[in-house]
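Need residues for this backbone.
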């Protein structure tokens, strides 16, 4: 520790206060807080250091071990997924938040005295949850650190003392390349902007670090820079290096180790905090990142402008070992957010809620730095209840305890544990592993010849089968597969297989595809989608809609699928979300029907010589998935026969007569013409469907052959007395027929209005007043289509 760093001024205060209270340490990037504080805290007991990123976790452990003059894995160690180098005697252990949460669920971190949560400003859900759990447990001394965060609010939350180290090791000069001072970060042509920014100044600098939002943009910039600096690269004077979460160890080593060459390192947020990249004197900041946010109740990954806090973090990467420069490709007055919103406000809370329950607490018991959205909390609880992972009180169930240790998405963990046989469970393990890695495992071939080879290799166009086959078998030459991602997926599969005591990957049980998919459909019916009839690229499940992703092999002839993975993007409108189905397994409509998907709906009826048949359709998400004719008996038969009568298919002429009788009776009663002493039925309005239903039941009609025993004369309607009916019909006709014109008459009694509605006839002229009944004292209108006129 020969080099003096700004953080060193806090050592005495830090050590004196650590045993008495929690601490919030604020110090600018490059001050040494990530390396000094763990060593200081180790003087007071065993230390767990939580680093939000894997690359930073391993790199810092290596560096701190070097500072302490120890071999990595002894006094100083680390633990990340798939890799750990520490012992029970290690004084300082660097871990990722996921590892820390799992250790907390096992023994509440009983072997540690101090927990340091580094770079808290990133506001990941796992660090927020970890801090809330540790505050609730109140067994450890807590230290939260960052270069840029709301220290006052955090110190109030923890009841902590706030320590601040002023000054950075070296000065960094900032320039902005935007034409307007208020220009926001812009992705358009970003690789050309980066290249132009570097070309003008690269000779004045040693190494250059460029911040980009993702792997796609990094690849584009690598291509652009290799063209721009082809001569320097070819002569061995320059190196262009990628740095993101899934780079190989060799690539990471090239980025983090000094070199004789001038290096241009193209990085995502992985290089924003904790890492010291030797030799960097120039930062090119695009001002962009990809992060999640909530949109219409769903977690969406979108392109965002960074916060001002992140901009400061990025700038600080150039001031670690010497004075530097930072070129920002956006305006000086761009309206950036002050801090990046916490992930607990941007993502679903299913995994955090289960993690809390497995650590012995419900969300209701925990106090977070920021209160959580109620709607998102309720959705998370509903999902976990459906999985039987928690009970109504939010406590973890035995099933939930089995899900949590599996290092994958909670839904995949649920599917793995409920599979009914070993082959299906192994299939789900391998698919979950392939879908849980940081990047896409393989790319769909673009050439026709390669696609034909793919079809021969796996005839069924099934994304899930393709991914599992890639894990289990040698990779064919015609497929583009990311070897590092494949290695990670295989490691994850082996880890889960070992935990569940399943066979190793190389001796995997043969796939029984239909049995497996039926089990998935039973366990997670919400994953089953069916094509829209008109918009064939869209599929729905009754609640959500997805669009077939361009990298999916889903066949044009397939009508339904289990959608194992989807990628949500912002749509065109403010409230729209576009969900792309990226991993699909086709299933037949017959399978959906046999599994009981959808609801039965009665369609059209028909009557044969000896039976009444009805078409029973099974409808799922608005589409008919099966249809069959069934013979009806009893009440169901009466309903079907009633429908046929009302449609005029049975007892022809009856419905027209009864319709007129009931219409006139209802009008008779409404006009106050009812006379109790001469009318045989009560003075109430009559519904024709109900009346027919009562008649069929009274006559004992239960089948088609029963109806054949009756004629239209067996269905009299005792309404207006016979001696009065003719006179009433003349005064208030139900229908009026003129030469080439038939009209239905509507009576609006409260308004004293009669409307003659065109029914049929080729007559072009409107009816004249003298052609119509008298209707004395009534206003008269004539309506044809959308045109209504008064007749005077």
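Answer:
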């Amino acid at each position: 520790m020969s080099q003096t760093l700004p953080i060193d001024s806090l050592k005495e205060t830090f050590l004196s206060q650590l045993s008495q209270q929690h601490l919030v340490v604020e110090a600018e990037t490059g001050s040494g807080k990530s390396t000094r504080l763990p060593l200081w805290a180790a003087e007071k007991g065993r230390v767990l250091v939580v680093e939000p990123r894997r690359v930073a976790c391993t790199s810092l452990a290596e560096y701190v071990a070097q500072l302490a003059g120890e071999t990595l894995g002894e006094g100083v160690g680390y633990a990340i997924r798939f890799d750990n180098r520490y012992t029970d005697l290690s004084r300082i252990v660097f871990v990722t938040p996921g590892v820390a949460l799992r250790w907390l669920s096992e023994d509440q971190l009983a072997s540690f005295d101090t927990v340091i949560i580094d770079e808290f400003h990133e506001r990941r859900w796992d660090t927020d949850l970890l801090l809330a759990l540790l505050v609730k447990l109140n067994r450890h001394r807590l230290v939260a650190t960052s270069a840029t965060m709301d220290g006052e609010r955090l110190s109030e939350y923890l009841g902590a003392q706030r320590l601040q180290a002023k000054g950075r090791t070296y000065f960094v000069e900032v320039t902005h390349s935007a034409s307007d001072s208020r220009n926001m970060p812009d992705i358009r042509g970003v690789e050309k902007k980066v290249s132009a920014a570097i070309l003008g100044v690269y000779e004045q600098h040693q190494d250059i670090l460029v911040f980009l939002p993702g792997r796609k943009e990094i690849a584009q910039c690598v291509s652009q820079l290799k063209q721009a600096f082809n001569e320097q690269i070819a002569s061995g004077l320059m190196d262009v290096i990628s740095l993101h979460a899934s780079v190989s160890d060799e690539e990471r080593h090239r980025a983090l180790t000094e070199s004789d060459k001038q290096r241009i390192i193209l990085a995502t947020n992985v290089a924003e905090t904790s890492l010291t990249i030797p030799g960097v004197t120039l930062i090119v900041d695009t001002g962009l990142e990809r992060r999640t946010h909530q949109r219409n109740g769903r977690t969406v990954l979108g392109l965002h402008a960074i916060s001002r806090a992140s901009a400061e973090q990025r700038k600080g990467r150039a001031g670690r070992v010497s004075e530097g420069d930072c070129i920002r490709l956006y305006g000086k007055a761009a309206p950036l957010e002050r801090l990046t919103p916490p992930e607990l406000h941007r993502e679903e809370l299913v995994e955090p809620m289960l993690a809390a329950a497995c650590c012995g607490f419900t969300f209701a018991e925990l106090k977070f730095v920021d209160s959580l959205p109620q709607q998102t909390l309720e959705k998370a609880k509903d999902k976990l209840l459906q999985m039987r992972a928690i009970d109504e009180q939010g406590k973890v169930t035995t099933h939930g305890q089995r899900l949590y240790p599996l290092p994958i998405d909670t839904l995949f963990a649920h599917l793995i544990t409920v599979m009914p046989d070993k082959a299906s469970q192994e299939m789900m393990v391998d698919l979950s592993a392939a879908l849980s890695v940081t990047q896409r495992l393989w790319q769909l071939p673009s050439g026709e010849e390669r696609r034909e080879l793919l079809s021969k290799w796996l005839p069924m166009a099934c994304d899930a089968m393709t991914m599992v086959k890639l894990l289990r078998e040698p990779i064919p030459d015609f497929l583009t597969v990311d070897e590092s991602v494949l290695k990670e997926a295989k490691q994850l599969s082996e880890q889960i297989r070992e935990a569940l005591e399943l066979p190793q990957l190389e001796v995997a049980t043969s796939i029984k595809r239909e049995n497996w998919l039926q089990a998935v459909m039973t366990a997670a019916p919400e994953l089953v989608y069916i094509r829209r009839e008109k918009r064939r690229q869209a599929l729905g499940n009754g609640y959500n809609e997805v669009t077939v992703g361009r990298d999916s092999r889903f066949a044009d002839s397939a009508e339904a699928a289990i959608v194992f993975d989807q990628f949500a993007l912002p749509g065109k409108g403010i409230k729209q979300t576009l969900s792309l189905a990226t991993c699909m397994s086709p299933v037949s409509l017959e399978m959906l029907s046999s599994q009981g998907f959808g609801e039965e709906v009665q369609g059209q009826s028909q009557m044969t010589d000896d039976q009444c048949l009805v078409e029973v359709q099974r409808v799922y998400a608005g589409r008919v998935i099966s249809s069959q004719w069934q013979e009806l008996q009893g009440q169901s038969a009466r309903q079907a026969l009633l429908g046929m009568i009302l449609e005029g298919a049975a007892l022809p002429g009856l419905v027209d007569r009864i319709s007129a009788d009931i219409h006139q009776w209802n009008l008779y009663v409404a006009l106050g013409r009812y006379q109790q002493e001469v009318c045989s039925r009560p003075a109430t309005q009559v519904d024709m469907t109900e009346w027919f239903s009562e008649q069929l039941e009274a006559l004992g009609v239960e089948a088609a052959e029963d109806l054949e025993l009756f004629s239209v004369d067996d269905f009299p309607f005792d309404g207006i007395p016979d001696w009065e009916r003719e006179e009433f019909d003349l005064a208030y006709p139900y229908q009026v027929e003129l030469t080439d014109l038939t009209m239905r008459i509507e009576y609006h009694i409260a308004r004293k209005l009669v409307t003659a509605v065109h029914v049929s006839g080729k007559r072009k002229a409107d009816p004249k007043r003298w052609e119509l009944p008298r209707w004395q004292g009534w206003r008269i209108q004539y309506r044809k289509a959308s045109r209504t006129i008064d007749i005077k």
